[in-house]
Description:
Number of strands: 7
CATH superfamily: EutN/Ccml
Strand content: over 45%
Strand order of the largest sheet: 1-2-3-5-4
Shape: elongated
Distance between the termini: 19 Å
Order of helices and strands: EEEEEEE
Number of domains: 1
Largest sheet: 5 strands, mixed, barrel
Amino acid sequence: xxxxxxxxxxxxxxxxxxxxxxxxxxxxxxxxxxxxxxxxxxxxxxxxxxxxxxxxxxxxxxxxxxxxxxxxxxxxxxxxxxxxxxxxxxxxxxx
Length: 95
């Protein structure tokens, strides 16, 4: 699992049939200190995340393990909205 912040939305009116009904979000990758790493990924949203929220996402074959993405050609999926995290006893993020 990876940390990211939802940076925006992606709309694709023409897509592979098995992707119909999925919501796509642009996610900016974060490191453990809540700093942008500079990388982006487009992820299917399995949990109803919104722009600006910090999320957990999975990539690769793990992205096809949610109920929403099972047997669909997805390479990234948002599977949790982060409420808080801490590192070394210090809170790094709180929603």
